[in-house]
Amino acid sequence: MKSKDSLLAGAGDNTRLAHLGHDPMSYHGFVNPPVVHASTVLFPNVETMENRGQKYTYGTRGTPTTDALCEAFNALEGAAGTVLVPSGLAAITVPFLAYLSAGDHALIVDSVYTPCRHFCDTMLKRLGVEVEYYDPEIGAGIETLIRPNTRLVHTEAPASNTFEMQDIRAIAEAAHRHDCVVTMDNTWATPLFFRPLDFGVDVSIHATTKYPSGHSDILMGSVSANEKHWPRLHETQITLGICGAPDDSYQILRGLRTMGVRLAHHQASALEIACWLEGRSEVARVLHPALESFPGHAVWKRDFKGASGIFSFILKAGDAAEGRKKAHAFLNTLSLFGLGYSWGGYESLALKVNLSDRTIRKAPPEGPVIRLQIGLEDVADLIKDLEAGFAAAASA
Question: What span is annotated as the signal peptide, if there is one (predicted)?
Answer without folding.
Answer: none
